[in-house]
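A.,

Following up on our hallway conversation. Structure tokens first:
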């Protein structure tokens, strides 16, 4: 594994990937179904032909610009694990700052109703439910695929029973009043 990691680190560095070592380790660990620590504990373990083939494919995809999070299918956000797919955008670091502000502003001495507009993978709605125990949360998105993934993430993070998922184009199907409305729409230019 050591040789493959060293080669991949150089390959990624030449491709302009900012953290070549971390990404090489993350992708190899993902390919093998282990965590990164396993790579350090077993540096001389050879890869099978099938593992090498799968790893080659995934590093080529990364070199071609597919984000690491899409390749491994998950992202860490606010200390929690979330699944991601091409149906949703990868949460940005700025989203964590927005969430910190929302948590600071949210009343803690009473039950509150929160709305996450354009929920995507559900990171905002799920974090609101996790860190505001007296909150009920509505997560709205126009995309059925995004809502399905958000539901999966809510279950993964133990808050599925505290979030209502609603297919809506912004406020189109929303009539309730909310104490806190949070939205972090994508920064995508129209062509």
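Then the amino acids I'd put at each of the 191 positions:
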């Amino acid at each position: 594994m050591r040789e493959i990691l060293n080669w991949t680190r150089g390959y990624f560095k030449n491709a302009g990937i900012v953290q070549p070592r971390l990404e090489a380790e993350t992708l190899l660990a993902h390919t093998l179904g282990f965590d990164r620590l396993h790579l350090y504990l077993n540096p001389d373990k050879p890869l099978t032909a099938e593992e090498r083939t799968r790893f080659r494919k995934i590093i080529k995809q990364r070199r071609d610009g597919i984000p690491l999070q899409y390749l491994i299918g998950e992202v860490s956000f606010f200390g929690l694990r979330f699944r991601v797919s091409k149906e949703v955008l990868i949460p940005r670091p700025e989203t964590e700052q927005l969430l910190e502000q929302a948590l600071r502003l949210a009343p803690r001495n009473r039950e509150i109703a929160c709305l996450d507009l354009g929920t995507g993978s559900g990171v905002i709605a799920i974090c609101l439910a996790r860190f505001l125990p007296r909150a009920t949360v509505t997560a709205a998105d126009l995309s059925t695929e995004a809502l399905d993934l958000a539901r999966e993430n809510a279950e993964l993070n133990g808050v599925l029973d505290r979030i209502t998922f609603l297919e809506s184009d912004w406020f189109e199907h929303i009539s309730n009043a909310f104490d806190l409305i949070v939205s972090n729409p994508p920064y995508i230019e129209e062509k």
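The longest strand covers residues 135-141. Curious whether your intuition agrees with the design.

B.
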